[in-house]
Design a protein that fits this description.
There is one protein chain. The protein is of the alpha/beta class. It contains six helices and seven strands, in the order E-H-E-H-E-H-E-H-E-H-E-E-H. Strands 3-2-1-4-5-6-7 form a seven-stranded mixed sheet. Strand 4, helix 4 and strand 5 form a beta-alpha-beta unit. Helix 1 runs parallel beside helix 2 and helix 1 crosses helix 6. The longest helix is centred in the C-terminal third of the chain and has 24 residues. The structure holds glycinamide ribonucleotide (GAR). The site of glycinamide ribonucleotide has 14 residues, from helix 1 and strand 5. Pfam families: Formyl_trans_N (PF00551). Pathway: Purine metabolism; IMP biosynthesis via de novo pathway; N(2)-formyl-N(1)-(5-phospho-D-ribosyl)glycinamide from N(1)-(5-phospho-D-ribosyl)glycinamide (10-formyl THF route): step 1/1. InterPro entries: Formyl_transf_N (IPR002376), Formyl_transf_N_sf (IPR036477), GART (IPR004607), GART_AS (IPR001555).
Length: about 190
């Protein structure tokens, strides 16, 4: 069974959805650990509750991004992590982690990329009065929410849509789609620690 590390910064509803699919045996993976960059983020409570080791790394405690990522990379290697799963991790992945895990880092983003990358994609779509938004799952490269797209699913934006209602629609899709795509990746040889 392959080992995954989930990286998250916030509430962790996607972490929870992935965890539940693992518990139900629908995602055949082992969640080795959670990496979080925000002290006190709710996702760390979810991990504790499930007995999954949670590690908080604050970037400001390190002299450089390379130092910050080198420590994370060491932890991942020690735990034989095969795949990094970004689930609301609001920080750019740098060259240190990319070099170690090239082609083995995936991200989920709440828009139809390349539209509305970066923070608050839902707010951006509403401000642009877009008729459609959605969810993108993609491999990570050095850009912000760029990299080869694996799958996208569309969501219609209603006339009276609010931030909360659109977020709810998007999260329903995210929570189903991300575990499904991860399960698909588990059968690929490229996703394996060398
Ligand atoms: C998710 O909607 C995810 O797509 C988004 O953060 C949210 C995290 O929610 N990611 C990005 O915006 C990445 N640029 P969660 O903490 O409840 O899983």
């Amino acid at each position: 069974m392959k080992n995954i590390a989930v990286f998250a910064s916030g509430s962790g509803s996607n972490f929870q959805a992935i965890l539940e699919m693992v518990q139900e045996g629908k995602l055949e993976a082992n969640i080795s650990l959670l990496v979080c960059d925000k002290q006190g983020a709710y996702v760390t409570e979810r991990a504790k509750e499930a007995g999954i080791p949670a590690f908080v790394f604050c970037a400001k405690d390190y002299l450089s991004k390379a130092d910050y990522e080198a420590e994370i990379a060491m932890l991942l290697k020690d735990n034989n992590v095969d795949l990094i799963v970004l689930a609301g991790y609001m920080r750019l992945i740098g060259s240190t982690l990319l070099k170690e895990y090239e082609g083995r880092i995936v991200n989920i983003h709440p828009s139809l990329l390349p539209a509305f990358p970066g923070k608050d994609a839902i707010g951006q779509a509403l401000a642009a009065k877009a008729n459609w938004s959605g969810v993108t799952i993609h491999f990570v490269d050095e850009g912000m929410d760029t990299g080869p797209i694996i799958v996208q699913e569309r969501v219609r934006i209603a006339k009276n849509e609010t931030h909360e209602s659109l977020q709810r629609k998007i999260q329903v899709i995210e929570h189903k789609l991300y575990p499904e795509i991860l399960q698909m990746l588990m059968t690929r040889e490229e996703v394996e620690t060398r």
